[in-house]
Each structure stands twice: as structure tokens, then as C-alpha cells.
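Hallway conversation turned thread

IA: we were arguing at lunch whether anyone had actually written out RNA-binding protein end to end. Turns out nobody had. So, for the record, here is the sequence (115 residues) and right after it the C-alpha cells. Reply here if something looks off.
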Amino acid sequence: MSKIYVGNLPYSVTDASLKSNFSEFGEVASAKVMLDRDTGQSKGFGFVEMKSAEFAQAAIAALHGMSVDGRSIVVNLARPREDRGSSSAYSPVGYRVNNRSDIGYGNGGFGGGRY
């Protein structure tokens, strides 16, 4: 199974049209256009899962840079999702800024500390 990133998509592209475009190159396991959570409008990119790496390479070679509704689309292998961890700086260990020991509570410097 190979996952392909498809970027710079026009907002008119749907899951179904994405799947049909890629199915010319082999069996498509899934095709998903990413949507904005609040508005439901396309974010302009999506992902396609192809059944084999050969199908994926053929689709990438043929479709990368192709013009769709006047936009040159980007097609390449999807990178694994990076683990971004927690979205806040607070952790069970306490508040730290980039794990620097010179910033935080009670270490002197700006914002109080030892007297």
C-alpha cells in the first residue's frame, strides 16, 4: 500500500473525482480530499492510497505538474505524519520552555525569582 500526497488542488475536486483520476493508473484503496473542519470547504490537498508501489509511481510520474482547472497539481509520495506531541508547553513535569533550565519559575532573571 502506497500513500500519495496530492497538493494545490482546485476546490472543485472531490473524493470521487480524485479517486477516478488515479484509478487510471491502478487500483485505488482510498482517496480523500482534506476539508476545513469549520467550513467544510476543501483545503486544497488530499491523499490517495494505491494498492501497490508500482501503481503509485506510475500515477506520480503521469500526474505531477499536470494542470487541473488552471492549477498545477503537486503529486508525490506522502511522508509519514510527524508526531507533533502535545500542543501546549505544559507537561506533567511542569511548565518548561523548550526544556531550558534558565527559563521558568524561580531561576532568577526577568519575572522574579530568588531574592
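OS: looked through it. The first helix runs from residue 15 to 22.
IA: good, adding that to the notes. The first strand starts at residue 2 and ends at 7.
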